[in-house]
Specification:
This protein is mainly alpha-helical. It contains 12 helices and no strands. Helix 8 crosses helix 10 and helix 9 packs antiparallel against helix 10.
Length: 259
């Protein structure tokens, strides 16, 4: 049996298991598209964590969980005769072929950026009124800002040089400081949002994923803070009983820990 046959056999096995669970398991029988939604989001974040940790075995497991959800949704769709797993697979195949005319047609592209620009133009031809229609409303704000900026770049709405974006960051910071001096909370929040949006834009020019960068900092902070908690515990103290000067000693130790 060759590799592709082994892969198809494994996928068929998953489909068979899904059919059986949907028929016989009380929990699986109750699930709907809506009830699975929050679980799918959770599984996606777990996959994201595994990727950031570069844990390949965990990535494999989390991909399996997501694949199960895709099969589960398709099974529910087949029960209402709206779509099944073949429709799902063919739908993405058709989209990939249509969106890659430089592979499946006679279009010539020079680089990755031209592929992205063509992708957005093709979506508009498919009937979308705005390039921003493809940005999910429920995305976390930081991720959404990044996707918005990436999409408008695809149609040429972008800065030309990184220093222009940095100048914009500085401008937004000054506007934030001005509003802080005036004390208008609503305007402070608005300007703070502008600062974040401009920083996310600058990250793109630095080829930094802002979500990944922030999550790395979150993990670093958690590691250092937990070191601080452990050290306090070794002294028989709680953090609430320690001064900031005492805590800072252990914080500096934590900063020297291997990354």
């Amino acid at each position: 049996m060759n590799k592709r046959e082994t892969q198809l056999q494994a996928f068929n096995r998953l489909l068979d298991i899904m059919d059986e669970l949907r028929e016989k398991c009380p929990w699986d029988k109750k699930q709907t598209l809506a009830s699975l939604r929050h679980l799918t989001i959770e599984e996606t974040y777990e996959l994201g964590d595994a990727i950031l940790n570069n844990d390949l075995q965990e990535i494999k497991k989390e991909l399996g969980d997501l694949l199960l959800h895709i099969v589960f949704y398709a099974k529910i769709g087949s029960e209402t005769q709206d779509f099944d797993i073949a429709d799902v697979a063919n739908s993405i195949c058709d989209k990939l072929i249509d969106r890659h005319p430089h592979i499946y047609g006679d279009v010539v592209v020079e680089d990755e950026e031209e592929v992205k620009r063509n992708w957005e133009k093709l979506k508009l031809k498919e009937g979308k009124k705005s390039v921003l229609e493809g940005v999910p409303k429920s995305l976390p704000a930081l991720v959404k800002a990044s996707r918005i900026q990436d999409k408008v770049k695809g149609v040429g709405f972008d800065w030309e040089e990184p220093h222009q974006v940095w100048d914009k960051v500085q401008e937004e910071l000054q506007e934030l400081q001005d509003e802080i001096q005036l004390g208008n909370q609503d305007k402070i929040e608005a300007e703070f949002g502008d600062v974040l949006f401009s920083m996310i834009n600058y990250a793109r020019f630095l080829k930094v994923n802002p979500e990944d960068a922030l999550e790395r900092t979150n993990k670093k902070f958690i590691k250092r803070f937990q070191y601080l908690e452990n050290k306090a515990g070794e002294l028989g103290k709680s953090l609430a009983d320690m001064t900031l000067t005492e805590m800072d000693v252990f914080w500096e130790e934590a900063k020297r820990l291997p990354k």
